[in-house]
């Protein structure tokens, strides 16, 4: 009976978590569908943001750019940029990054030469990174609709070089020169983006810089057992990490000034983030375009550059995987995009321990097995208490059956007699459940660690398991897990209630089906945990039964 309650508690806790995720996705705070905001018609590349009316920057009020002229569209071309981590396409129209492939991350194990595509102009996964300058005089401030020029059509980080700069040039009729410079460095997915403004005109230049990520809403975010968030996220010193989904952005709920923060569009394993310079105020905004796509962006305060002088706007654009060490170095709180949910205080230490083990064994499958053994050792005493309680309950099985025969359908009198027996034998009927329930948060935290950690993506173990982040293709591990659950049941006292007995027999089937869709790394953890539990429970039960005979 204790085991039935334990399994039901675990199933209820986990299913409750999945239901909560689905509820938050559809009906959670800030996700109500809002009426589309009226916007100016735009081209496929979207719009620039409107700035608020502020007295100190009225002279740099941005205007929405007009539609691109046919001439500008015809003259635009793509610049190819390749480093050791990124393979990009930059459109000379606006200097927009319209395609980004991650060289170190194939789309699948069996397609090593096809690299994962993070940014794309394909309608099915539209996602681009835009930037530009805004001002009262749009003829002097190139937006992402302006036509730039470049010295070459292809740039590549050569062997032995650690840095590559790509300059895009624009000039106004009155002599304002703008260089949009992308600087790439070896070994990182972070790209420095600068706008260098030289005012060779006869009048002051006043403008601001904006950067924004534009994305189409994905059709889905995985199956019911592997839901992952796709949408906007920001970080601020006041409110820390916050998510803004597509409906939030479309409703204009993101509209605030932030210092020392960042904005991002995140998805499972990967993200694009805009990181402004430290201690510089930025205005974060979100919106929905007329074409239905969402935008999350940031713009700076206005800057004045007098004739004959120069000025610059700078910051970092990150396009890559959710590698926590790299993200932590780039900006405070950026590693929180590896979203462990409300159990982050458990999941973070778990991830650290896993990293340390992996550094020794260099295989994530064996890392999970060793970690499971360590977890089992950490909870050894709790598990021992639980199994002793179950073994003692098992000794009472004949007496419980006798009570059932004596009282028949009188469940109230039977329960009273059972409680008296428990009291006489000094057995706590919940003693087997409570120690095991303590372990449930650790299981859920590990679920998030294994689901969110990009290190497990396409990580092999042995034999047919060549990717621990996806389900077992042959369902071998889930079947082993189901058999191990059945064996555990046989070591536990059978419940006196026939209905509970039927539920108990059916639970391994339910869990096997459910775990068939889980990442194989998580199923591996559960299989090893079950096998260790069976061994521990069998030894304890044997000792108690032998002691009773003596």
Uncertain regions spanning at least 5 consecutive residues: 1-9, 15-72
Distance between the termini: 27 Å
**Which outline best applies?**
elongated
Overall mean pLDDT stands at 79
* DSSP helical segment count: 14
How are the strands ordered across the major sheet? 6-8-9-10-20-16-15-12-13
Class from helix and strand fractions = alpha+beta
Task: Please state roughly what percent of the residues sit in beta strands, choosing from under 5%, 5-15%, 15-25%, 25-35%, 35-45% or over 45%.
Answer: 25-35%
Rg, Cα atoms, Å: 30 Å
Number of strands: 20
Helical fraction equals: 25-40%
The largest sheet is:
9 strands, antiparallel
Describe it:
With 550 residues, the chain is α+β, with helices and mostly antiparallel strands. It has helices at 2-27, 70-75, 246-250, 324-330, 344-361, 364-378, 380-395, 397-407, 411-425, 434-437, 440-452, 476-491, 498-515, 520-549; strands at residues 78-82, 86-91, 96-108, 111-119, 127-134, 149-150, 154-156, 163-171, 176-185, 190-199, 205-215, 231-236, 240-244, 255-259, 262-266, 270-275, 281-288, 294-299, 303-305, 310-321. The strands form three sheets. A nine-stranded antiparallel sheet has the order 6-8-9-10-20-16-15-12-13. Strands 5, 11, 14, 17, 18 and 19 form a six-stranded antiparallel sheet that branches. α5 crosses α6 and α5 packs across α11. The chain is elongated, with a radius of gyration of 30 Å. Mean pLDDT is 79; it is low at 1-9 and 15-72.
């Amino acid at each position: 009976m204790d085991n039935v309650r334990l399994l039901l508690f675990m199933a209820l806790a986990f299913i409750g978590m999945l239901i909560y995720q689905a509820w938050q996705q559809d009906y959670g705070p800030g996700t109500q569908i809002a009426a589309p905001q009226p916007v100016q018609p735009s081209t496929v590349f979207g719009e620039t943001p409107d700035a608020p009316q502020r007295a100190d920057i009225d002279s740099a009020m941005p205007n929405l750019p007009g539609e691109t002229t046919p001439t500008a569209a015809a003259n635009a071309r793509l610049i190819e940029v390749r480093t050791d981590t990124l393979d990009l396409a930059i459109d000379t129209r606006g200097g927009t990054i319209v395609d980004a492939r991650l060289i170190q991350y194939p789309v699948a194990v069996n397609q090593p030469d096809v690299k994962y595509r993070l940014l794309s102009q394909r309608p099915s996964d539209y996602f681009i990174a835009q930037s530009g300058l805004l001002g009262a005089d749009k003829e002097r401030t190139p937006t992402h609709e302006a036509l730039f020029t470049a010295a070459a059509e292809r740039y590549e980080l050569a062997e032995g070089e650690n840095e590559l700069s790509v300059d895009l040039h624009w000039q106004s009729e009155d002599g304002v020169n703008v260089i949009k410079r992308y600087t790439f460095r070896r070994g990182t997915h972070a790209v420095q983006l600068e706008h260098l403004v030289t005012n060779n005109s006869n009048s002051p230049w006043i403008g601001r810089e904006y950067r924004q990520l534009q994305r189409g809403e994905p059709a889905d975010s995985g199956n019911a057992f592997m839901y992952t968030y796709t949408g906007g996220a920001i970080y601020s010193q006041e409110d820390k990490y916050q998510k803004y989904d597509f409906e939030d952005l479309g409703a204009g709920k993101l509209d605030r000034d932030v210092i020392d923060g960042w904005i991002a569009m995140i998805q499972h394993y990967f993200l694009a983030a805009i990181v402004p310079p430290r201690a510089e105020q930025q205005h974060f905004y979100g919106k929905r375009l007329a074409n239905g796509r969402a935008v999350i962006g940031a713009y700076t305060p206005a800057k004045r550059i007098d004739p004959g002088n120069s000025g610059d706007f700078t910051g970092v654009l990150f396009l890559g995987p959710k590698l926590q060490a790299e993200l932590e170095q780039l900006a405070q709180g950026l590693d929180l995009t590896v979203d462990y949910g409300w159990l982050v205080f458990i999941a973070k230490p778990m991830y650290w321990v896993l990293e340390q083990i992996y550094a020794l064994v260099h295989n994530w499958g064996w890392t999970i097995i060793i970690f499971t053994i360590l977890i089992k050792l950490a909870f050894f005493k709790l598990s021992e208490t639980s199994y002793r309680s179950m073994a003692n309950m098992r000794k009472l099985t004949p007496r419980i059956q006798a009570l059932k025969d004596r009282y028949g359908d009188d469940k109230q009198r039977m329960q009273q007699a059972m409680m008296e027996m428990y009291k006489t034998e000094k057995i706590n009927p919940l003693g087997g459940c409570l120690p095991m329930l303590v372990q449930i948060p650790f299981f859920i935290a590990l679920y998030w660690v294994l689901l969110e950690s990009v290190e497990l993506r396409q990580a092999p173990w042995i034999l047919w398991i060549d990717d621990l982040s996806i389900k077992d293709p042959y369902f071998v591990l889930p079947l082993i897990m189901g058999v191990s659950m059945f064996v555990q049941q046989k070591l536990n006292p059978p419940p006196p209630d026939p209905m509970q007995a039927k539920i108990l027999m059916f639970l391994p089937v339910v869990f096997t089906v459910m775990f068939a869709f889980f990442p194989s790394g998580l199923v591996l953890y559960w299989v090893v945990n079950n096998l260790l539990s069976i061994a521990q429970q069998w030894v304890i039960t044997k000792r108690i039964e032998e002691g009773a005979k003596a």
